[in-house]
Amino acid sequence: xxxxxxxxxxxxxxxxxLDLTVALAGPYCTLLLAGLGAEVIKIESPGGGDIARTNPxxxxxxxxxxxxxxxxxxxxxxxxxxxNKKSITLDLKSEKGRQIFRKLVRGSDIVVxxxxxxxxxxxxxxYDSLKDINPRLIYCSISxxxxxxxxxxxKVMDIIAQALSGVMDVTGEEDGPPxxxxxxxxxLLAPLYGLIGIEAALVQRERTGEGQxxxxxxxxxxxxxLPFEHFDIQDRFGFPPRSxxxxxxxxxxxxxxxxxxxxxxxxxxxxxxxxxxxxIGHSALIEDPRFxxxxxxxxxxDTLNAAIESWTRRHSTASVIAELQVKRGVPCAPVRTVKEVxxxxxxxxxxxxxxLFHPEAGQIDAVGAGVPIRMSGSTVGFDKPAPMLGADNExxxxxxxxxxxxxxxxxxxxxxx
Length: 417
Known about the structure:
Blueprint: E1 16-20, H1 25-35, E2 39-44, E3 58-60, E4 63-65, E5 74-75, H2 76-81, E6 85-89, H3 95-106, E7 110-113, H4 119-122, H5 127-130, E8 138-143, H6 158-165, H7 185-208, E9 213-217, H8 218-223, H9 231-236, E10 253-257, E11 262-266, H10 270-279, H11 294-299, H12 301-312, H13 317-328, E12 332-334, H14 338-342, H15 345-350, E13 353-358, E14 362-369, H16 393-399, H17 405-414
Parallel strand pairs: 1-2, 1-7, 2-6, 7-8, 8-9
Antiparallel strand pairs: 3-4, 3-5, 10-11, 11-12, 13-14
Helix pairs in contact: 1-7
């Protein structure tokens, strides 16, 4: 993949990040930093690397597959999450490895880690151990449930964070069990908060000259969203925590079945509701005491939604949209499939979605996330494929750590790099 000449510099050009992350939450944070222009150096264990390198499907000489990885194969996970990053291998369990890491810290701006509880302290690569080496260092820790861990010994994956945060309790059908959100939302939300903290710390460092430690957790990030729906207050009035594909507080506000799919309808104000009632042939319902105002519609949401769906079920998705959105201005859209969205040329043109590249085979038939931010004076996005494990050892250890070719060769023989 060729590097594309940028019409404008990237906003974080000149910022160096040491990436001690694995799995998704941490790597997504550093991926965004890379997409905004930071130099991200991904530090992996010699001989194995990030555990995500073992995630199927793999991509190799014969395309994607779920078989055992062969030489030259790279996990699709890494192809997506390590773009625009450099890869070095370094054994932080060895004293020589830690000495080299400290050299890298002196010339870096940011460290991001999401290692297991106590790991950075045992390796002496925690913030307290590094801040004297580089007082300007900004250090971001992303964890599952915060530190110290209130659930000692618990290994927190996305579904665990969803369960502990309450998000699963408010997801699913009203009369069904709690449901997992369809994406690893905790893994994706926490790094966004981490990035916000890092950006704020960079601004503060310009004033004070000092870095700081940023701590975010997956569970805290999700739990912080719950109050936006005031579930505690709604419970007092008999509203169940789960409402499926409808938001009763704003009824009619949800998804409805058509003859060939589903549509989402948002009738969140009086004019739109009147237009919906007229479209379904029951304009008088706007005067009905059950539906004449938002509070009454919320209490009688099931009856209201059933009346609307009895109409949508008799019409195609296109005709429902033509009647509500095109003719009447009511917010209404098709529920698109994942395949439809990933193939959307507008999203690809905007940079929200980008094709993935293998470092040797070139572009592959898979799509990766872009950086959905447009900046008038900066270039945003990914223009370099994910590297093979340790691809940048010589460059980074030579130019940043000051090691000679002989030293690098010896450290490789010793298994330090």
